[in-house]
Known about the structure:
Blueprint: H1 4-17, E1 31-33, E2 39-41, E3 49-55, H2 60-75, E4 79-86, H3 91-100, E5 107-110, E6 127-131, E7 137-142, H4 147-155
Parallel strand pairs: 3-4, 4-5
Antiparallel strand pairs: 1-2, 3-6, 6-7
Amino acid sequence: xFSIHSSAALALALAISVPARADMPAVPRLHVTTLDGKTxxxxxxxxxWVVVNYWATWxxxxxKEMPDISRFVASHKNVAAIGLAFDDSAPADIKAFVAxxxxxxxxxxxxxxxxxxxxxxxxxxxxxxxxxPDGTVAKPFVGPVTAALLAAAIKGK
Length: 157
């Protein structure tokens, strides 16, 4: 039986040991329906940096990074985000989870059997892609991100 600590350790070990692949398109497309029924289109975000964050309800490092990403997005007008719940849970369960862990950006569910085509399937969670204002991939992150990591990546450090 896995404890929450064992699950967190496993997620972190995977995040550290498995690098993000680089075979996705230079300008990935992402068009998803969010939990609130709206459409999120990555192409419509041109001119902004975009944080594309894969997470799951069972992923402790994901839960810990969500408030930091949320604050970062809320405090930077030139940054948008989309949370992709990479989880086969019922949509109602994901909505309930987000109600307990609110964020300032939209959330969409991506099931394991219907992954997003232009983004590599995560090899560990959380997995985040930072997209430049021109739509190209600036940096992939496997493992938790912080406001400091996002700010440094945007500054090119």
